[in-house]
Amino acid sequence: MSFYEKILAPLFFCLEPEDAHWLGIAALKSGLLLNSQADEDTILNIEVWEKKFSNPVGLAAGFDKNAEAPDAIIRQGFGFAEVGTVTPLAQPGNSKPRLFRLNEDKAIINRLGFNNHGLKPFRAKLEKRRRVGASGIVGANMGKNKNSDDAILDYVTLIEALVNVADYLVMNISSPNTPGLRDLQGRDQLEELIAAALKARNDNAKQNCPLLLKVAPDLSDQDVKDISDVAIQFKIDGIIATNTTLDRPEYLQSEYRQESGGLSGRPVYEPSTHILGEFYKCTEGKIPLIGVGGISSGFDAYEKIKSGASLVQLYTAMIYRGPGIAVKIRNELAECLRKDRYTSVGNAVGANFH
Asked: Among all residues, which ones are annotated catalytic?
């Protein structure tokens, strides 16, 4: 067990989940957590969207909602960080309690509802990073305001503001905690959204800024095919598979297992990996994929990569095992690659289907 798991996690878990979350952000910002001193293994280097990632293991959106600590996150050993979800206007999110630890299941249920400080301060933080020349790849995850009457306008507004201060942009159309959001995954609405979003990106971009979709694990085969067809038709830059699930597996043990909201962590590993593989097959490997959901080891990351992911992300596992998990997963992933005689992580992408 790590120092975090032995000492810090029990202390954090004495606090309400949201209080522990903000304490974790504060610790990162303050520099109290030791930075990773581990050397990067070159077998993990990968280039996606003409951007060079030192390793493919990133921190998923949801942890650093207001872009307060992306550089501190990267210094923990992550290859990239995704901040947000940000909405055009600040919003408090859903009423509390809205975040639940399922300790026995190594899982989390959240119904936060895109609580964030809004676009203006979010953009200012990313703009400052650019101004001071901060290194490291940082993406921005974007969502619609809960009470917005025009979802497309919300995304266009966000894209116009963030396209030149983020390294990539993600349209989150899959959170289960904003009414009507997942409807945007339907073919007709998705075509309209992507067309407007790409126009906003292309009209305003002064740099290479890929535009991605983040989708749900709760999709039918036809949903996956429709989204894939639209993504190929419009040449979307990437797909993140997947967000949290509304499903509740029967084997969940925690007293909080029936709380409403999105389930993340270990129980979503298998369904999210299945959906990831389906997207890889439907897109024939033509669109870079980011695999998310239940990763807690280098082997898990390796399986996502072999199922089609060029990059992977985690979040829930860090709650249970601490930020040092990034280096642990990196090292284990490198071992997996060498054991199977791969010379680079890129060579293993989609190996399950080749």
From this structure: 175
